[in-house]
């Protein structure tokens, strides 16, 4: 693949406290990877093809580290419930439908297309307990060129009879799923016990053995509500924290450990997560819709814990990660207002970093425009009123707050443009 140049206002976050802005510049892409950013076209590239986007922004594509593909059809429904009632009245009955593969295909086709439409090219996705449906989701993401982790959900207790497996069936079906994706490429399998209250100790231990055998990580919910945190320890007597359940099962030793929400972490939870380099996924919309708590993002970042952003569809009502960036800033203000001694407001730069470079690191070199990173990118229109010019920083902020998929003018995965009708 020959080197190609793209001209525009280039914006990315090399660190949580630094927004790199190269206005009126050129990004050189060689074999799908960023080679460099230049104020003028270098002599060595004077004959290279150059696509000129004028003053439009070129930004890294987004990563969603916690989303339920199976809940796509219920987004924006049941938002007046808290977690337990929302699961029992809406989510569990709806997910039972995924035993019908034709139903699952319709949902997953729409879900994957909508992620790409909104600029999410890397995603960590919950399926359901149904292996065939989850396998379809995995292959659909592969087909579209996405980066991802996809998990077949495990539930063998404290769940509705219509959405429960025996321990033996759960482990057997999970192993078939893992084995069928051995050696996969950009999309990889991950273990997905729904959360501790729905999984027996025998199931957790069995999943830990599969993690060791197939060298895969874990994706689940952790201390997402006061109810869940208390219920986890009630179901696992003798344990001292939610995270300890996964650590003792051996689920944090063989791949990434990705924990959604982490709103009420104890010091022990944080110690275990930091030890294993785990990701805590902040899901702002879900926080306000059904969970009623706010992750202490700024404090956890200061403690050097890894933080990512998730849409948590359908607990979250919007699949757009850029909306979650804005919402993360808003919620940090609320948390500082009510807990001034324990929290602080984050900047848009920090939220953008957690949704791009830090979240992207679980998939490899994606989420930034430093040399050697994959050119997984979005071109965003100027977002300006014709009579008031804005800086690139202002346009990025405006996109996160009031933009939508119509403002995404081009999409690139591994340097190849993805043509998508808005």
UniProtKB/TrEMBL annotation:
Domain Amidohydrolase-related stretches: 57-417
Domain of life: Bacteria
Pfam annotation, one family: Amidohydro_1
Cross-referenced Gene3D superfamilies: Metal-dependent hydrolases, Urease, subunit C, domain 1
Alphabetized UniProt keyword annotations: Hydrolase, Metal-binding, Zinc
UniProt-listed InterPro entries: Amidohydro-rel, Metal-dep_hydrolase_composite, Metal_Hydrolase, Metallo-dep_hydrolases
Cofactor: Zn(2+)
Name of the protein described by the UniProt record: Amidohydrolase family protein
Organism (species): Coprococcus intestinihominis
